[in-house]
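sorry for the late reply, my laptop died twice this morning and i had to redo everyting from scratch. anyway the thing you sent over, i finally got around to it. pasting the sequence first so we're on the same page, its 278 residues, then the predicted structure underneath. double check i copied it right bc i was rushing
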Amino acid sequence: MICNNCGKEVENGTKFCASCGTKVEEVVSTKVEKKEEVKVEPVKSSNQGSSALGIVSMVLGIISIILSWFLTVFILVIPIAGLILGICAKGKKAFKITGIILNAVSIVVAIIMFVVGLTAIGRGVKESIPEIEKGLKTVETTVKSGYPYGTWTCINYYDTNASAYQDDVTKAPADMKTVLYLYTDNTFRYGPYSESYKNYYKGTFKYTIEKEKNEQYKSQNYSFIDVETTINDAMIDGVKNTEATGMHFEMELLGGSKDYDTALMLYYNTYNTYYCQR
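ok and here's the structure:
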């Protein structure tokens, strides 16, 4: 330890300097420690993640604007998702705004293209209806001109009032009419017009075009068809009839009527003759 007055060395623990008698004060050396600088890492902003949403929104918008022209409303889930992401996005506004605009435009384009497509389909169907009707009429005429299929409304040819309804059998009273359905799957149903729910025959049938007879009456433009039926369901006055086995009749389609819509039917079972129209 050094004396502050005379500069002589003084022994440790001594109160006074032996050379000059000055009271010695203990000098405490202090060291200034440098505080170590702590580097603080900047906290990443959540805006970076939000900015990514804007980029994704923009990408979805680009995809949607392309697909909307072809897939119309069937891709709406993509632009709607992109629009939501764009609205939620923060950070760089360029991506966000671009994504929102592209996705919104995609939704509008998809809806417009869907409506245009429906209109085009409707127009096409409307234009094709006359052709369809024309085709059906051709088939109908072909079927009617030489085949028995159809719904035949009949009245007894020998009924005293039959001649009054030969122009239009449907105008005859209900109790005069009998209806024969000959379906194109070769099933049939036959019964009185007014009580067919409790009096009817049902089953299958097969027919034969009588070529020789048709040739014989060719000049009169008749078409003769032989029809045989097999009955598998019969009802007489509301009671099941298990004895009925079949009906056999001949149809004489009259060529003078439109599309052979008029016929005389001779039932071989009873030899009754009916005047029929379909």
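The longest helix spans residues 93-146.
thats about all i looked at so far, will dig more tmrw
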